[in-house]
Design goal:
Number of helices: 6
Shape: globular
Number of strands: 14
Low-confidence stretches: none
Number of domains: 1
Largest sheet: 6 strands, mixed
Radius of gyration: 17 Å
Helix content: 10-25%
Distance between the termini: 12 Å
Oligomer: single chain
Mean pLDDT: 98
CATH topology: Deoxyribonuclease I, Chain A
CATH superfamily: Endonuclease/exonuclease/phosphatase
Structural class: alpha+beta
Strand content: 25-35%
DNA sequence: ATGGTAGACCTTCTA
């Protein structure tokens, strides 16, 4: 099973680009972030024509996540618990039906910049709530994938110039510690387990020639429960997508799970 | 040099 995560930076501005990638890459499951539209504006029919079942948790202008699957989605939930005052659309979860069901959570973790503001506090609070929720999911002892734009640079090897990012919310010690705490729960970073070579960037800023100069960061991750990690067959970062017309600033990351045993 | 680009949307916010 190929499971993809991709921050598309507006699904409607990016529809042709996204659909053509889906046709060639044929992911079985996809988590999309920053769809930047309400549920009714999501191009559901276009994905249904490609054979996908669609679940959306949208929001006007900002954020918004979607979960797509070639097999039916079950037990879909929207929103991350732990704070009733949080109205950002950043979390969607469902079970991918099949002989070996896989629970998939798609996340758009807050950016958190600038550091020292309530935005950074919100980011750390969101990570704490994700930790609490993941703890409960892991107790189910299922194949589980938590995939999305984490807005976390885990290690210096995941950024072209660590010194240039020391003041950024994505690379703060507290941010990195919260990401490590997720892994300590028993989650495996799929890219590190399958490949792990430095320079596996997933995001290049639109500004200052970041893409042609390969000034990237690795912030789109798939974290796997033990029963999902046991089946991990590989991870591919589709970096070439960044060089196409009208690209998102993120590229798709695809993990392959072997569900044949 | 505090620059630069992109998207939603209505003048500025988010990234």
């Amino acid at each position: 099973m190929r499971i993809a995560t991709w921050n598309v930076n507006s699904i409607n501005a990016r529809l042709e680009t996204v659909l053509s990638w889906f046709e060639e890459a044929q992911p079985d499951v996809a988590c999309l972030q920053e769809i930047k539209c309400v549920d009714e504006k999501f191009p559901t029919e276009a994905f249904e024509r490609l054979g996908y079942n669609v679940a959306v948790h949208g929001q006007k202008t900002y954020n918004g996540v979607a979960l797509l699957s070639k097999t039916p989605l079950e037990d879909v939930t929207r929103g991350l618990g732990g704070d009733e005052t949080d109205d950002h659309a950043r979390y969607i979860e469902g079970v991918i039906s099949g002989p070996t069901p896989v629970r998939v959570a798609g996340i758009y973790l807050p950016n958190g910049n600038p550091v020292g503001t309530d935005k950074f506090t919100y980011k750390l609070g969101w990570m704490s709530r994700l930790n609490a929720h993941a703890r409960g999911l892991l107790a189910l002892e299922e194949p589980l994938v938590i995939a999305g734009d984490y807005n976390v640079i885990p290690e210096p090897a995941d950024v072209h110039d660590p010194a240039a990012w020391t003041g950024d919310a994505l690379f703060q010690p507290e941010t990195r510690a919260a990401f490590r705490a997720l892994k300590w729960l028993g989650l495996t970073d799929a890219y590190m387990a399958a490949d792990g070579s430095p320079g596996g960037y997933t995001f290049w800023d639109y500004q200052a020639g970041a893409w042609p100069r390969d000034l990237g960061i690795r912030i789109d991750h798939l974290l796997l429960s033990p029963k999902a990690a046991d089946r991990l067959a590989g991870v591919v970062i589709h970096r070439g997508v960044r060089g196409r017309d009208k690209p998102s600033d993120h590229v798709p990351v695809v993990a392959e799970l072997d569900l044949s045993f």
